[in-house]
UniProtKB/TrEMBL annotation:
Coiled coil: none annotated. PANTHER family: PEPTIDASE INHIBITOR I78 FAMILY PROTEIN. This is Peptidase inhibitor I78 family-domain-containing protein. Residues 1-27 are annotated as: Disordered. It comes from Ampelomyces quisqualis.
Length: 83
């Protein structure tokens, strides 16, 4: 039986809803210097974030406060995760 830690691995975890909140803000937009209809400003992202393009190398360290922003080849946000 797998170990389940309440609030860490459940659907009700705050980190899960936080990444969902960020996805709703960022999905379909590009990350840039200023806000407009199609761009979200880098300055409004959390301090701990990284933007990952397809085939980018990334570290495997887990930082629960880090926001991982996954973009497609066109630079549009496709997915947002924490860690």
């Amino acid at each position: 039986m797998p170990l389940v830690v309440p609030g860490l691995m459940s659907k009700d975890a705050s980190s899960s809803s936080s990444s969902d909140d960020w996805l709703s803000k960022l999905a379909g937009k590009k990350i840039g210097e200023q806000h407009d209809e199609t761009t979200f400003a880098k300055t409004d992202l959390p301090q701990e974030h990284r933007v990952l393009k397809p085939d980018d190398m990334k570290t495997m360290d887990f930082k629960p406060d880090r926001l991982n922003i996954h973009v497609g080849d066109d630079g549009v946000v496709k997915e947002v995760t924490k860690g």
